[in-house]
Write a structure and sequence with these properties.
The chain is an alpha+beta fold. The protein contains 1 helix and 4 strands; from the N terminus they run H-E-E-E-E. It is rod-shaped and about 95 Å long. The N and C termini lie far apart (93 Å).
Length: 130
């Protein structure tokens, strides 16, 4: 007489396989989420770059010592906050503005930097303005 059902070995194989699939799914989700946050950081840096170059510099002939919603009004204010909820200029933010060659709040150069999770830093520097 033959019994119907699964053996313990068959059940164990199915459980191990299902567990492996769940683990792979979550690893992929974590990687995808990190890449999405990196893209948000790059988008913010690009928006700051174009606001500085095409609006602020054209209007003023110099770069500011600090950037914010007040002096880059053409930018979406939400882009000053990184995906972790930390504002630009606050310690721990993955978005960094580094002015250089400044005199009385008027700077000739800057570097924008995004600290990414899955890639090297994303860096934009001022254009060579004459």
């Amino acid at each position: 007489m033959k019994k119907r059902g699964f053996t313990i070995i068959e059940l164990a194989v199915v459980i191990v396989f299902a567990t492996l699939l769940v683990v792979l799914f979550f690893i992929q989700k974590i990687n995808t989420d990190a890449m999405h946050r990196d893209e948000q950081r790059k988008e913010a840096i690009n928006a700051m770059f174009y606001a500085l170059e095409e609006d602020f510099y054209v209007e003023n002939g110099y770069y500011p010592e600090e950037i914010s919603e007040e002096n880059l009004k053409v930018m979406d204010p939400q882009l000053f906050t990184d995906p972790n909820g930390i504002n630009l200029g606050i310690e721990g933010s993955s978005l960094v503005y580094e002015p250089a060659n400044c005199d009385n709040g008027k700077c000739k150069e800057y570097t924008l930097r995004a600290i990414l999770e899955k890639e090297d830093e994303y860096i934009k520097k001022n254009r060579e303005n004459k």
